[in-house]
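Obj.: predict assembly geometry.
Materials: sequence records (below).
Method: joint structure prediction, all chains together.
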Amino acid sequence: MRHGRLLRLTAAAITGIAAAVLLTFVGLPLLAIFLRVPLSTLVAQLHSPVARDALLISLKTSLTALAFIVVVGTPVAHLLGTKKFPGRSVLVTLFELPLVLPPVVAGIGLFVAFGRFGLLGASLQRFGIRLPFTWVAVVMAQAFVAMPFYVRQAVAAFASIDPQLVRASRTLGAGPSKTFLRVAVPLARQSLSAGAALAWARALGEFGATALFAGSLQGITQTLPLAIYSAFDSADLTACLAMSALLVAVSFGVLITVKILLRSRAWV
Amino acid sequence: MTDPHLDVELHHRLGRIDLDVRLAVGRETLALIGPSGVGKSSVLRAIAGLLKPKRGRIVCDGRPLLDTQRRVDLPPEERRVGLVFQDGALFPHLSVAQNIAYGLRPRSGGRRERRARVAEILERFAIAPLADSRPTRISGGERQRVAIARAVATSPDVLLLDEPLSALDTVTKSHVAAELSRILTGLRLPTILVSHDFGDVAGLAERVAVMDAGRIVQTGTTAELLRAPASAFVAAFVGTNYFLGEARRAADTTVIDLDEGGRVVSDDAAVGRVAVVVQPWHVAIGDPAVASPDANALIGPITSVAPRGGTLRVAVASTPAITVDVAADAPVVAGLTVGAVVAATWPPALTRLVPPA
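Observations (raw structure tokens):
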């Protein structure tokens, strides 16, 4: 009897200590960003030209990347989620690869594909299109790494739609595209929004692929993460912290939004 | 305009069974019945265009919906075939009124006309109070009514109903059945109603087609199927007694030696192979010791007693086994316990002889 109780107490103590360690490990760095310098200084720092440029570039590129991901990813996810065809699982795996691929490798890949001497880049060059080190390159880097966050969520959402509803729509006179727009998309809406929020957050935080494929040119390709690194490099810790604090706040907001979206089902 | 008329011929491989179906439906309700997995729903899906059969031809009022030989295969949205799904398949993100408006073609009149049409349908199906409700918030019977209303709103040429009653509880079922009967009578559309329960559809359909393993084994009115089932399968499905045997004439009567053993007498004249049909409600149950020697009698223990409306359906494990309907308030009911040995008796005059399968 006493033995069992001792064991239970030990287990509880170990769990408690583990929780405390984890909380400190995750919580402290986030807290430190806000505690190092007064909040008013952080806000003031955001008005510096470097920070403002980076914020604008980040917004422009990440939102463009998101638009691209949603427009291209939604129909593809619908196909992958609702149709069975040979090679489907290979495609799904391929589209998920950027999740685990080191972003720097993604950047290298983009460079040798779309760069000046890349597979497709050389042909683009002939038409006068040059992608590397432009804001389009930033968008491409972000879209590459953020795509799976949206597509995975969207595939799962479309796959979970009762096929009977799709059949009902067809027998009621709606063709495949009307059925997609009026049944599939509305039913998947919450999941699609959640996936979009996650993808946007990932695009916003993109660093490795962007640094390699687009560089860090202030006012052109320098996004917030790149500006943070650059400020850190030039020992401007206050600017660093200001932009970091902004990204922490945004990330937190995105996560909360995603949780709310995935919990609620508007029609219930 | 000629009567809308539906002609169906289908051949398809469905897992282990070969679907091979020929159907003609006028302005009437045809019930397609059979146990689960015989291909009934697949027939509906093929007519609606949701399943493409290997070979087949579907013509509705002269308009070919499918003709595999001539490579005609209209998509579901162009067939004008209304299909009511088993669970209703209502769109959960739309209100009842929006569900009904969904199928109204955008070309057919302006917004006001559409709204008027929705209002009219809501009124006609007595679901106006539910107009703004979500389908998840209404009862099973209401959902079924909305599903039928939604299909009818599109003015289809053909109406197909897949197990419209099977998901409902007994009380709701009888309400919905009565309503459905009224609605179908009013529509006068070629209608096919699929069910696995003969009792559910017996009152709804003008004709009943019994399906087994991908084929229609018998088509007829409810009365015809009960009077002369074409096989033991049909008999079991419609719930009547069916015994095969060898008939010979003896004096004024026919004596039948049953294949399973036992002997019965009939007033019908026949010689050779016959099927004996005895309606469960023509059979009486009594004490084996006092059974009349003039009546046919099968003796055995009771294996089950199941209430069906105002009657009890009693299964007796005699040789051959027989099913008996007893009025729920009959004096004999008190002694009807499982295991009790009883005599099931019926007169030769109510012993029908039909050609065997």
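Conclusions so far: The radius of gyration of chain A is 23 Å.
To do: check interface contacts against the pulldown list.
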